[in-house]
Each structure stands twice: as structure tokens, then as C-alpha cells.
Amino acid sequence: MKLETLINQLSDLGFALRNFSMEALPAEEAVKAHQLFRNFQSEIECLFRYADPVESIKGGSSVSDPGKSNQGMLGNAIQTPIGNIIGCSSLLKESELSLEQLEYVNAILASSNILMDLSRDIAGSAYHLQQHAHLEQGHQQGLSERMTPSTKITGRKQKFDLHPVWDDCLGEITLLEELILLFKRNCLEFIGEVKMHLQLENFEGIGFASHKIKNGLKMLHVTELLTIAEQMDHLSSTDKDLKYMKFLYHCFIDEYPLTEQAIDLEIVRMKKKQENDG
Amino acid sequence: MTDNGKYQLLLAEDDELLASLLVYRLEKSGYAVHMVHDGKKVKEYLQEQTPDMIISDIMMPYFSGIELIDHVRNVLKLDVPVIILSSAGNEQNVLSAFDLGANDFISKPVSPSELVVRVERELKKR
Is this complex scored with an ipTM above 0.90? Predict the structure, then answer.
């Protein structure tokens, strides 16, 4: 039901109630009933015109302060007066009324029940919107939390420093890029080699591969991968714990793409800087 | 020495990443560098040519740096200077290399500038 229709129906109901009360009730009771309805009508109009619950939910105020949600506001501000109308109308219905008066009372009751249902629907949808907004907020929060490690890709800060190698390259960015390519290839070869050695439980092979990769990692100052490779190298000559070795291998696999991405970003940044410096 | 008057260096290093960087810096410093990635290739090269200097890693496929020095000094009877590149923790190998006739060693990760200085120093001794 559109708001305009609802407001029009409320006005119609107001006229009908006034006519009815003037005819059927003593003057004092008629004024009371009329006043009660007028208050209800103005509150409804005010709520719908100036405080669209959906909009206010979207605006976030109810999300940030659920205690003052539109659900509660609708419950108290709309449903209470509607309840009063239904109660008064029910009392009226039990009094001695003409057929015409009874029709009016039934019309008031029916309209009030519709309004009550409608207000419950609105309150319900407001509640669902609120819940949805909460979930959405939680989802966004969760996403941002899950994104945190990748900002360590970018996000969780990868520890490496290309500047010493760049200095060794005498500022030749193309050579640096070539070295980075070799570095990536070495890492991928290392991953493949270790996988094979793990299957064969060849700790000597793992030790050799780890020892070899360490130099490239040291060269580029890639701290995380270097730490893992050093542990693998050490483990291959000491404990020879296959389970722990597999764990370290998976750590390397997890860490490598983050490092790779971070290095690529750093290269782009360095190239831009070099272009800007002329 | 090459035809254009450059010192000829043999670089034996299986880590292409490091080798590429070292070749670049050595060539920039005016040396002619022949790069090989395993011990077998070193042997093949030495059968045909005699470089002015050998720069070699210790841990290499097929033929280690230690075996290479032994081959150069005791089989080929060459007096070319040999610089060993070695990772930390290979001290025993470094000592063995010196025993067999290595002239110098540089610990990895190798600083190209340091290598250039050491190469110059060894060649000046000749």
C-alpha cells in the first residue's frame, strides 16, 4: 500500500469516525474519540512523511543505535494508538448501536486492524532491514579483516628491500627486472624440487634446494621466505621431521605469492619514481 | 686476455640470479666474462681455454667448486687465480678450498662491488 493511499484512507476514516461519534456518542465522548483519532492520524502522517523508516535505516542511525530503532518507534508510536482505537471501537461495538452505527464501528475496526497489520509489516521489514544492515556491516568488517593479510601482501607488510640490488644494478631497472624474473623462476623451481623431495622423503635434496634458494632471498632481502628457507635447511640436517618440513613447505607456498605481488608493486613504484626523476 | 685486451674471467655459478648480476657488474668494470652454471661445463671450457681468473661457487651440480680447484691445480696444473663464492656455514669447504689452492673467497650474498675490487686486487698481483 502506498503512503498516499494510507493517508487518504486515514482522512476518510477520520470523517467517518467524526460523523459517527457526533451521531452515536454523547458530545464529550465524541470529542474524546475525535481527538484520539486526530492524534493518531497526525502521528502516522508525521512518521511517514518525515521519518521514512527504510530511509532512516539506510541512513544508518538505527544501525549504529539499535536501541532506538524504527522497529521500537513504530511499535510504540503507531501500534499503541491503533490498539487504543481498536480497544475503544470494540467497546463501542458492545454498546447499543443502530445498524448504521455498527457498520461504522466495524469499518473503524477493520481499518484499524489493517493499519495494525500494516504497522507490523513495516516494523518487521524495518527489523529485517536493520538485521540485514547489521549482517552487511559484519560482512564488510569480516571482509576487511580477511583482506588484512592481503594488504600484507600489499597489507601485512612484506619485508623485502630491492634498493641494495638496484644499487648493485647501477640503477638499471631492466636488469633489476631481469633479476626479479630469475628470482621468481628460482622460487618456482624450489617449490617444485621440494615437493618432489618431500614425496621421496629426501631430506638431503631439500637441504640442497633450501641452501641454494637462500642466496637469492638474501640478495633481495626477502625476510619471510628467507626465514622459512633457513628453517627448512636447518631441519633437513637436524630433526628431519617430515610433518614439520611439509608445514614449512606450505608456509613457503602461502607466502610466495604475497611476496611476488609485493615485489611487482615495488618494481612498478620504482619505475614510476625513475620516470618522474627523469 | 681477450683480443681486445680485456681480462677473461670464468664465472661458475649455478644460481642464475646471482650470476647475472655478477656478470653485468664485471662486464661494466671492463672484464670479459664467460658464465657457466655447472661443474661439467667448467671442465669442458677449461679443456679448450685458459681464463685469466676463475670465480666459482662451491656447491654446484656434477662437479663441486672443491673438485674444480683440485682439477685446475692438480690435473690441469694451472696457476690461474681462483676466487671461491661460498654461503655462510660452509666454512669447512672454504678451508678445503684454500688447502687446495684457492686464492680468495667471498661470502654469499656476494656484493658485486666487493667482487670487482677483489678481482682487481688478484689480477694486480700477477
Answer: no
